[in-house]
Amino acid sequence: GTFSYKFDTPTFKGTSTFPTGLFINGKFVDPVEDATIDVINPTNAKVIGKVAIGSSRDVDIAVKVAQDAFDKSWGLNVAGSERGKLLWKLADLMEQNADELAALEALDVGKAYSVARNFDINGCIATLRYYAGWSDKDHGQTIETDENKLAYTRHEPIGVVGQIIPWNLPLVMMCWKIGPALATGNTIVLKPSEVTPLSALRMCSLVNEAGYPAGVVNIINGLGSTVGQAMSEHMGIEKIAFTGSTVTGRKIMEAAARTNLKNVTLELGGKSPNIIFDDAEIEQAVKWAAHGIYFNHGQACAAGSRIFVQAGIYDEFMKRFTAHSQALTLGDPFEPTTYQGPQVSQTQFDRIMNYIDSGKKDGAKVHIGGGRHGSEGYFIQPTIFTNCRPEMKIVKEEIFGPVAVVIKFTDEEDVVRQANDTAYGLASAIFTQNINLALRVAHKIQAGTVWINCTNFPEVNVPFGGYKQSGIGRELGEYALRNYTAVKAVHVNL
Ligand code: NAD
């Protein structure tokens, strides 16, 4: 089949057309068992197309093809500089098609077109270029031993890697994954989220155009319970890199443990604390707190969803944060003034509404918001809860929507204890003008990222990942290369 959509919007005009099959061995093919899923526009809940979805049999085929490509036309057969050139070319092609890619992302996810264009697509391009640079620079070590031996290490590609990504930032997650995997010489079987299958399909022809040998990148749309599960269990996949929920991460590790003990890295959920001390620069704190929780409509793993505000600044912060939240424009993602579009799906809409209900039932106070916005699509008002207690579900669990809980605190020790009172440990933020306080607290927080006087903004050359149940391993930066390489030690007896 083919997907075709005519965009006639204030921010993007043009038609996007591409095949909707499975992308295996450099070609679009039909799944072994004929099946499709609907693609839904979250702005109005209308079906805008269908894409093919695979099954475990298609995974078998793709893994075989990827193994073949690894052995014959990729892996150790291609010089690092050549891999770098291809990644750079792919980045150039994304840049040439950036407006269309952004439009597809805005359509499928429901995010503002300007955000998709400036944050998502530019971030993707930067990520591919960053890893293009690493392609010929990831060297091992030389080690002299006491036994008069010389040893050296090689960073070898793992082989066929499986990559499973979520719907909140489809292309960003794809590039965080394929960038380091291709730079280090692996071949890939990637499954996009069934909620947002479009942009990955559009990328397939760019992969061919860039000049990748057939079978190096294979993309199979499908359900988590079938394609995702088959990948996690597959004996021919040596590694799974996953981004998504903690529940699914657990299933993937179980599948890996039951089968070939494949290496697993996980980027999971969060309930990140955002700590605002009395001496914070208030306008900055308000601006960033809003970005922390409302960016991507709260559908960000690093969202600053627990906002801790010190007693002395609390009233003033709440006044300004409330005004800021109420001034955000909700609407069509393609209107230039839109800040916040719809949530991604009916499922997510219901899930967030259930959390809002549970907060009310548990006795928290809806300070603002708490309801649907408009009459169609999956829009939810920016929502702030106060009067929260630590045992409430809205304080403990990841809501993944534009819903903040604000908690007043008194002193440093108290807030560090509360901030760390969570099963998660993905990210955190601290607002203060006191450098000693900032660094002292930064070192006490159990999280993979601490942002000081900013938040919710990963950088391509800085590692990103979770403590505790937020994950295993790090993406981005040099650290991500370790997700996709096996270290081989060679001993030479002198
Ligand atoms: P999800 O876990 O439901 O789905 C993620 C992916 O896993 C999808 O492609 C899905 O099809 C697949 N999947 C589902 N069941 C599977 C199974 N049994 N085996 C294998 N694969 C399976 O998550 P989601 O709803 O798409 O995304 C939201 C979650 O992702 C949030 O919890 C969020 O925090 C997390 N997330 C984390 C990061 C990060 O970097 N830490 C980034 C983005 C999103």
Topology, element by element:
Elements: E1 2-8, E2 13-19, E3 22-24, E4 27-29, E5 36-41, E6 46-52, H1 56-72, H2 80-96, H3 98-109, H4 113-134, E7 142-144, E8 149-157, E9 160-164, H5 170-183, E10 187-191, H6 198-210, E11 217-219, H7 224-233, E12 239-243, H8 246-258, E13 263-267, E14 273-276, H9 282-294, E15 306-310, H10 311-326, H11 346-361, E16 365-368, E17 383-386, H12 393-396, E18 403-409, H13 412-419, E19 427-431, H14 435-444, E20 449-452, E21 471-472, E22 485-493
Helix pairs in contact: 1-7, 2-4, 2-6, 3-4, 3-6, 4-5, 7-8, 9-10
This protein binds nicotinamide-adenine-dinucleotide.
Active site: 267
Family: Belongs to the aldehyde dehydrogenase family.
InterPro entries: Ald_DH/histidinol_DH, Ald_DH_C, Ald_DH_CS_CYS, Ald_DH_CS_GLU, Ald_DH_N, Aldehyde_DH_dom
Question: In words, what does this structure look like?
Answer:
With 494 residues, this protein is α/β, with parallel strands linked by helices. The protein has 14 helices and 22 strands. The protein has a 7-stranded mixed β-sheet, with helices on both faces. A 6-stranded mixed β-sheet has the order 11-10-9-12-13-21, with helices on both faces. Strands 7-8-22 form a 3-stranded antiparallel β-sheet, with no helix packed on it. A hairpin with a 2-residue loop joins strand 3 and strand 4. Helix 1 (56-72) crosses helix 7 (224-233), helix 2 packs antiparallel against helix 4 (113-134) and helix 7 (224-233) crosses helix 8 (246-258). The longest helix has 22 residues, at 113-134. It is globular. The model has no long low-confidence stretch (mean pLDDT 98). The site of nicotinamide-adenine-dinucleotide has 28 residues, from helix 7 and helix 8. Residues 32-490 form the Aldehyde dehydrogenase domain. GO terms for molecular function: aldehyde dehydrogenase [NAD(P)+] activity. Keywords: Oxidoreductase. InterPro entries: Ald_DH/histidinol_DH, Ald_DH_C, Ald_DH_CS_CYS, Ald_DH_CS_GLU, Ald_DH_N, Aldehyde_DH_dom. The active site is at residue 267.
